[in-house]
Amino acid sequence: MLDTQARKRLHEFLDDIRDSIDTEVDLGDIKVKDIFMGSMGGSAISANIVAGCCTHYMDIPISVNRSPIIPSWVGSDTLAIISTYSGNTEETLEMYDKCKAAGAHIVVITAGGKIKPMAEKDGYPVLLVPTGFQPRYSIGYMIGYIAATFSSVGYHEFSDRLKACMSSLEAYRNYLEAPGSLAHLLAYKYRDCVPVICTENKYKSVSLRWKAQFNENSKMISFDTALSEFNYCEANPWSEYKGNRMRLIVLTGEDDLVDGGKVKLAIQNIETLEFPFDLVAIGGITHEERLFRALILGDYVTVYIAELKGIDPEITTVISELKRRIRGENQ
After folding, report:
1. Domain residue limits at 121
2. What torsion, rounded to 10 degrees, do the Cα atoms 52, 53, 58, 61 define?
3. Do 193 and 142 have their domain in common?
4. What is the pTM of this model?
5. Which of 104, 253, 268, 285 could cysteine-pair with 80, CB 3.0–4.6 Å?
6. Are 269 and 238 a contacting pair, CB within 8 Å?
7. Are both 285 and 213 inside the same structural domain?
């Protein structure tokens, strides 16, 4: 086993949520009609995860924006959460400027960079993520801070639901760290494949995270798709697939595998296409518990694959070089 910082950061993911979820965010006595979460890349996945939970029970619209073009409805009744680990992402800085111009109530989540002094000067709350690790491992802090911000404007349910399943999630994490766990088994199976992560729409944030972690931790090409499409357009191209490199991971909640349901029907359709796939059914009592178990599982699978390949998941030379070029440092 490689002695990687990645293992330590995976273990501390839930601790990071605990450390941030009860943060006091001073927004005064405001009322909001909608929530805008603006960020790019890995920072945006945290927003997608929270939105994927909260849309089931929150009574106001939640939008996750990955573009400097912000919706026209952002205004004085909007809570705008702007997240950027580096604090220097140009698209996110532009979102910040436009939300400020629209009069939104802004909260910034960052490790520093340009946005920190900007937000402090403008009088907006700044929630600091620790430095010293790869940005993709800041996800626990970002999720916790988003939950805390929601609570500050009267929406406590996501925070309460997540805290209620933390002990169960910690037990699941400990299981995944033990030899012979599901994460180890999937790592052996997928180390020489091109994974295609297939989920229901309510787990879309999970498939985004798995794909990104395969890319960055395992240094593998991967793709994601929607399970619902196997009842419609995607069945045809997969039925013609004759290769042996791509392998489908069907990721769903145990509660969705009811006879006659759309998920079960889609899986039955996949079975008739005769190409390799694995059904990974995630247990748990609540949607939050199942979603976060699936999230944790993907992180461990991808780091274990890196270890099997003898590579350090921390090293992202190509990404670092691209970011330097974007900043113009090599020009």
Report:
1. 5-164
2. -10
3. no
4. 0.90
5. 104
6. no
7. yes
Decide if 277 contacts 227 (C-beta within 8 A).
no
What lies within 8 Å, CB to CB, of 293 at 6+ separation is 169, 172, 282, 283, 284
Residue 319 belongs to some domain of the structure? no
The CATH code of the domain that includes 89 is 3.40.50.10490
pLDDT in tens, 248-291: 899 999 988 888 788 888 888 888 887 778 999 999 999 999 99
- Residue 316's nearest CA partner among 4, 67, 68 is 4
Which CA distances in Å does 254 have to 202, 251, 263, 271, 306?
A: 14, 10, 10, 18, 28
The strand pairing partners of 127, in sequence order, are 109
Nearest CA among 98, 94, 92, 105 for reference residue 47: 92
- Pair (34, 148) in one structural domain: yes
Regarding whether 180 and 155 lie in a shared domain, the answer is no
Long-range contacts of 4-8 (CB under 8 A, 24+ apart): 4/303, 4/306, 4/307, 4/312, 4/313, 4/314, 5/133, 5/134, 5/314, 6/134, 6/137, 6/217, 6/303, 6/306, 6/312, 6/313, 6/314, 7/303
Q: Are residues 135 and 180 in the same domain?
A: no
The answer to whether 136 touches 216, Cβ cutoff 8 Å, is: yes
Same domain, 150 and 195: no
Chain centroid, CA 261 distance in Å: 27
**Closest by Cα among 142, 93, 145 to 119:** 93
**In a shared domain, residues 26 and 150:** yes
**Exposed e or buried b per residue across 24-46, where buried means at least 16 C-beta atoms within 10 angstroms of its C-beta:** ebeeeeeebebbbbbbbbbbbbb
Strands 223-226 and 277-282: unpaired
> What's the pLDDT tens digit per position in 290-311?
999 999 999 999 999 999 999 8
The total of structural domains in the chain comes to: 2
Nearest to 215 by CA among 200, 197, 198: 197
Asked, for residue 315, whether it belongs to a domain, the answer is no
